[in-house]
Design a protein that fits this description.
Blueprint lengths: L1 E2 L2 H10 L6 E2 L16 H6 L7 E5 L8 H14 L4 E5 L4 H7 L5 E5 L3 H10 L2 E4 L8 H8 L4 E4 L4 H5 L4 E3 L3 H11 L3 H10 L1
Helix pairs in contact: 3-8, 8-9
Length: 196
């Protein structure tokens, strides 16, 4: 059995007794490499300003913890109304319902990998609030383009991110506080973490 993380390997062992499990971590495509500069025109064409938005590039299943991300988005909007939350992923009624009424959200729908790379590269940070991941590819992609990553301290994310990301508890106050921390707003960070 081949699996992308030790976390996933341990999960498999809990349910079965395979003779052999190999952990082979995922990699990223060449389009997701550190760039000297994000494609500013491509970012602005999506009605975003480089360095003034946070990217979430994933689905909306329960384990992705997007309800909590929406709550964190509300908290950040109160403290930092200049920041936007850019959501990449297939359009769905669930996504629309969860983020309805959350200020400063930009739903981008499904975008090309090159655009995801530009978005991540130009972002204030990439946020991965999942409560369960067998790997956590968006975190790796964010790190690959050189973006700061805020990730939940759950599942395989600590293994994938190690000390290259800001690992937080998967609650709204911690996520919002970490975003403000990346933005360099210490006062907002303290207020938000206590609100969570």
């Amino acid at each position: 059995i081949i699996t992308p993380s030790q976390f996933a390997a341990d999960e498999i062992r809990a349910f079965m007794s395979p003779r052999r499990i190999e952990v082979i971590p995922y990699g990223v495509s060449p389009s997701l490499q550190v760039r000297a500069e994000a494609e500013v025109d491509a970012i602005r064409a999506l009605d975003l300003e480089p360095g003034r938005y946070v990217v979430h590039a994933a689905g909306v299943s329960q384990r992705k913890n997007v309800e909590t991300l929406a709550d964190a988005g509300r908290l950040v909007a109160r403290q930092r109304p200049d920041l936007r939350l850019a959501l990449c992923g297939a359009r769905s009624q669930r996504r629309m319902d969860i983020f309805e009424g959350v200020p400063n959200v930009r739903m981008l729908g499904k975008v090309q990998p090159e655009t995801v790379a530009d978005l991540m590269s130009g972002a204030l940070c990439v946020v991965v609030p999942s409560i369960y991941e067998g790997f956590g590819l968006p975190a790796l992609e964010g790190m690959a383009v050189g973006a700061p990553v805020v990730a939940a301290r759950r599942g395989a994310l600590p293994e994938v991110c190690r000390d290259a990301a800001l690992l937080v508890e998967p609650d709204a106050g911690s996520i919002a506080g970490a975003i403000c921390d990346v933005a360099g707003d210490e006062t907002a960070r303290r207020q938000l973490r206590s609100a969570g």
